[in-house]
Amino acid sequence: MRSPRLAALLTATLVFQLAAEETIAPLGTYTAIERRHWAFQKRTTPEVPTFTEAVDLAWAKVPVDAFVLSRLKKAGLRPAPEADRRTLIRRASFSLLGLPPTPEAVAAFVEDKAPDAWEKVVDRLLASPSYGERWGQHWLDVVRYAETDGFEYDTHRNGAWRFRDYVIQSLNADKPYDKFVLEQLAGDEIAPEAEAMRVAAGLQRMGPLRKNAGNQEVASSRNEVLTEMTNVVGAAFLGVTLGCARCHDHKFDPFRQSDYYRIQSYFSATHEKDITLATAAEQEAWQEKAKGAEAEIKALKAELKDKTKAEEVKAALERRLEAATDKLPPPLSALYSVANDFSKVSPMNLLERGEHDRRKDKVGARPLGILLPEGTPERATLPENPRTKLGEWVIDPENPLTARVMANRIWSWQFGRGLVTTPNDFGKMGLRPSHPELLDYLANQFVAGGWRMKPMHRMLLLSNTWKQGFDSPMAKEAEAQDPENKLLWHWGRRRLEAEELRDSLLQVAGQLNPKAGGPSVIVPVDPELVKFLYKPSQWAITPDPAEHNRRSVYLMAKRNLRLPMMETFDAPDLQISCARRESSTHAPQALELTNGDLASRMATAFAARLEAEAKGDRNKMIERAWLLTTSRLPSAKERAIAGQYLTEGQPLREFALAVLNLNAFLYVD
Hints:
The radius of gyration is 28 Å and the shape is globular. It is mainly α. The protein is built from 29 helices and six strands. It is 49% helix and 4% strand. A two-stranded antiparallel sheet has the order 1-2. Strands 3-4 form a two-stranded antiparallel ribbon. The protein has a two-stranded antiparallel sheet with strand order 5-6. Among the domains are: 1-29; 280-328; 585-669.
């Protein structure tokens, strides 16, 4: 039991802390210290470092290299020598396409003596349709794209796959990022008649959704929907933990609870809307089939609104409602989107601890106060196109966060590590940039270049920083001083991500189906996993086996059933924004690559391909196996071991499986 003296001391301490918080950061005002944080400052225009020594001038031919070399020289370090051509084209192919280069593409680059040979490779990769499939997956991670609701029901979302196709097509077309952002925030407001704009606005519905007996009108459900819409603005576009201010003022960053609900106000008129693509005749036929079930659903929902019913009665009604819903015919083709309904604007108040039934002061729409002049008023009434207004503020070139955040994401996905290593958190608890001047230079170039991503890729891939090798003659000194390679003194080796690994297995085995777009593919999985779903019928396997070998980005993104192989290799869980992929190492990965269903099937197909292409020539078979998987010829030792194995008459399939488990295949240097 606490002593009265201790209790008094604890109470006094708490009162002091609360008083101090109120003194430091009263509601609606921001201190000079808070405004001084680097991420909330206007971007600088840094001078590009210059050099006098010939060796430095030769290496730092572009500004990116100059900024990196300047930091290295201050630390007494030097960059690593350039990687060889085979390594470079393999690295670039995985970076931009998520696939290994063909042996023919590697040979062509190695033999091309033209001074612009590397530029031609980069331009060819950027022009490939596979670019959007690789980089689209990055963006889908950030916006927690999924085609099901999650939680207990995990209902499938009719037509949600179109958002994935919109992202891929936008990136392949090199759509300016500011336009890309605005379309996702307010496509339905900008061009309500354009299908692509409606699909883009489906971003607002990408988060997990807890169903309440099929009723999304109840206040608690509506509150969760608005929360998801608000949080993604902070995480994806602004790179801040805005969601932490939902229940109270942010504990570390200058985001008041009022800031959170002022941002949420822009979504207060936003409601889900499925826009049918069916003809009038198809809709009429559907309504006729659904008539009985819809009448039953309507009656059951009306009964559920009766708050006087006992809990067991409500539970029975909910079970009957689910059964009635199952009687509906399959949904018609539709656009998964949102629309404003100003007759159903959700009242916007501060919520005590974020609870929908504990309302406090009313607030209006306004961007983040820390990025506005002191005293900027909120909107008393909702503007005609509220999300467009929010989007225009997000993409304003003067907004210090947006361009920095995306420039950092591009760098992170290219180098495997961001200049800011917490891509979704540029706040006080995030890490400061390793090269702040370089980050601002990149953000400025991004905006000046029309917010286009492909020129940014080109700039990075043509730099000597990007072309460094993994091995450095200064490794011992550099590792002692900079073990995490923050100063970029060499290239960082990485393992293939889950999608890259699966797609590469399919490609080298000659089984990859290049078909693009369309409804997502459901592949076979262990029946025991399907049993755990709310309804096993949710996992209806795509009947055409050829569809099962399409790129991973086209597989069903179901929250309650991730493919075991993808989960084993660290694919995200689709519940929240994934800013960066983690890379773990554990025993199940080795088991998956030696005994897993996909690895086994691809080993068989790979063996058949080697036999057919080498026409029985053992040496050609060994060379072809290494060229397809590692983009190089086998070393003398590798050739000898493989040759001895095949000479002994061992199964070609086992040889193929062993090659698919080489580190040189699984990792990118």
